[in-house]
Specification:
about 210 residues; about 25% helix; two-stranded antiparallel sheet; single chain; six-stranded parallel sheet; Rossmann fold; binds zinc ion
Length: about 210
């Protein structure tokens, strides 16, 4: 069992209605992470460690929505100025019920909600960088100022926002751990295996649970 301390941070990624069953971009079994995330958050709090949340938060005209590209279909990949982008059904639109956290998520101790994907022309899978991989969200600065050095990631979806966040955390110099047991994957065209390979290259520790 991992011993947690005050320099550890739990990052709970995108546990929102649209990524849970019944949502616009539902991840199979996505709501199963809710009680696991709650338990993790309580353990981190008891150890004096930190807890933050990320929230996918798009304007209605967002570039990642298939609806905003005439003739395009959801889950198709297109080329945008910053690189390849998978197109998604419209999801997590700012201010809608789909963008709200799952009602069962019980993490009042979270000190920060990091919203991402709010720039209309660029998507943001990672909690640290936009999908151009160099426009920062500010989360690395927050972690450094708060003295967090080891970051644990869980949530939705394993192979997109959780994996890109964990990978960028390692690249930013943090010790990075992805907890697969409290995450669920979309697994689109082999995306889970591809994500696990990138995580290994980046030096991210992948564990089922702590
Ligand atoms: Zn999104």
């Amino acid at each position: 069992m991992v011993t947690l301390c005050a320099t550890d941070l739990l990052v709970l990624v995108d546990i929102q209605n649209d990524f849970c069953p019944g949502g616009a971009l539902a991840v199979a079994d996505g709501d199963a992470v809710v009680p696991l995330a709650n338990d993790l958050a309580r353990r981190f709090q008891a150890a004096g460690a930190g807890v933050v949340l990320t929230q996918d938060w798009h304007p209605p005209g967002h570039a990642s929505f298939a609806d905003n590209h005439p003739g395009a279909q959801p889950f198709q990949t297109i080329r945008l100025p910053y690189g390849e982008q998978t197109l998604w059904p419209a999801h997590c639109v700012q201010g809608t019920a789909g963008a709200e956290f799952h009602a069962g998520l019980d993490v009042p101790m979270a000190s920060l909600v990091m919203r991402k994907g709010f720039r209309p022309a660029i998507d943001s899978y990672s909690a640290f960088f936009e999908n151009d991989r160099h426009t920062p969200t500010g989360l690395a600065g927050y972690c450094r100022e708060r003295g967090f050095t080891r970051l644990f990631f869980a949530g939705l979806a394993t192979d997109f926002c959780v994996a890109f966040s964990a990978e960028d955390a390692a690249r930013a110099g943090f010790t990075s751990v992805l907890l697969t047991g409290a995450s669920r994957a979309i697994d689109l065209n082999g995306s889970l295996d591809a994500a696990l390979a990138r995580l290994a290259l980046a030096g991210v520790t992948v564990m089922e649970r702590i």
